[in-house]
Amino acid sequence: MLYLDNSATTQLYPEVKDAMLPYLMEEYGNPSSKYYSVAENAKAAVKQARNHVASLLGCEDSEIIFTSGSTESNNMVIKGVADQYPHVGNHIITTKVEHPSVLETCKYLEEKGYKLTYLDVDQYGRIDVQQLEEEISDQTILVSIIWGNNELGSLNPIKEVAEICRENNVFMHTDATQIIGKVGIELSEYPGITFLSCSAHKFHGPKGIGVTFIKKDQYGIPTKITPLLHGGGQEQGIRSGTLAVQNIVGMGKAAEITSERIVENQRKLSELENYLTQILKNKFGNQILFNNDVKNKIPGIISIQFSGVNNELLVKSLSPVIAASTGSACSSSKPSHVLKSIGLDIQQIRSTLRFSLSPLINQNDLQIFQQL
Ligand code: PMP
């Protein structure tokens, strides 16, 4: 079976599994313990992994907080800022096309009395920075904008968003879950970004581990958020709980490999995307319509309407040979809010399939589409 659902999750790099195994077996120490070897070894492994993730993101080691993944990181930042800065304001700006872990957290806060603005998007799911600028007020405590869209691949103008936030002295968060490993980032070049979320399993690391980047100082003061989990004070007191050493080591290894291969992977994914696009155009002609933009996007994510076809039936019928998705894995039972936000009607949404590619496949693998 050809796995083309890499936006849902990815296969582990074999090196990641090898790096993790000792920490599931003989190196079982708790990194918060002291003086004896298995604890010190675990501590050293976590330190090294933190350094690899920081290098991948272009930030300092101390700005990396390990979490269970992007869902937790998104919750941590949005609830944590809302709780910490009520004296500054109660207004949060986000978009209509965020992942549910952002949208549902925002809805929860809205029910608690916070004021939320959900920015509109264009036909490819990108926000208008002018609209963002107009919406920022002296009550705004956070702007949370997805970097790259999980259904369409479109990249938001994050440089401009970060600049606007900086000019207005507003904290900015970005959900970067989908871009890591596919688009190179260097956080030191984005001084306006205060927080970022990502998950290891989207770039060939293990599931159940992710990171929140928290910029040490923003606008001249140390960045503070209220913890989601209180307890033993791990992760600078921001995220208590015994560290998942084997997962952290796995994420560190995936980050190390990703840093080495990012340029090659990006090129490979673009080539594969162009190749698959051409095969599909040749084969299906005007029976298909592409929802995604061709430029300024995460390479390797394609969203297509197969006119007159029910996407669930199509995914099922393809499933013995190709694994594809009707949208995002997180909310595939409901019609996609992302596709709705770009103006598609229910018929068009119900006929849309997403293919998300991996640098671990090649053009020969995609020949399978010729046989459909
Ligand atoms: N944000 C985006 C954009 C995602 O694609 C996902 C995963 N589908 C998440 C957040 C949540 O990540 P996780 O399930 O690893 O917590």
Shape: globular
Give the low-pLDDT segments: none
What strand line-up does the widest sheet have? 2-8-7-6-5-3-4
- Under CATH, the topology of the largest domain is which? Aspartate Aminotransferase, domain 2
Q: What Rg do the Cα atoms give? A: 21 Å
CATH superfamily grouping of the largest domain: Type I PLP-dependent aspartate aminotransferase-like (Major domain)
Overall residue-averaged pLDDT value: 97
What is the name of the CATH class of the largest domain?
A: Alpha Beta
- How large is the share of residues in beta strands? 15-25%
Q: What's the main sheet like?
A: 7 strands, mixed
Number of domains: 2
In the CATH hierarchy, the architecture of the largest domain is: 3-Layer(aba) Sandwich
C-alpha end-to-end distance: 13 Å
Q: What is the count of β-strands?
A: 14
> Could you tell me which ligands this complex binds, including any ions or cofactors?
4'-deoxy-4'-aminopyridoxal-5'-phosphate
Order of helices and strands: EHHEHEHEHEHEEEEEHEEHEHHEH
The residue fraction in helices comes out at 25-40%
Number of helices: 11
Structural class: alpha/beta
Family: Belongs to the class-V pyridoxal-phosphate-dependent aminotransferase family. NifS/IscS subfamily.
GO molecular function: cysteine desulfurase activity; iron-sulfur cluster binding; metal ion binding
InterPro entries: Aminotrans_V_dom (IPR000192), Cysteine_dSase (IPR016454), PyrdxlP-dep_Trfase (IPR015424), PyrdxlP-dep_Trfase_major (IPR015421), PyrdxlP-dep_Trfase_small (IPR015422)
Keywords: Iron, Iron-sulfur, Metal-binding, Pyridoxal phosphate, Transferase
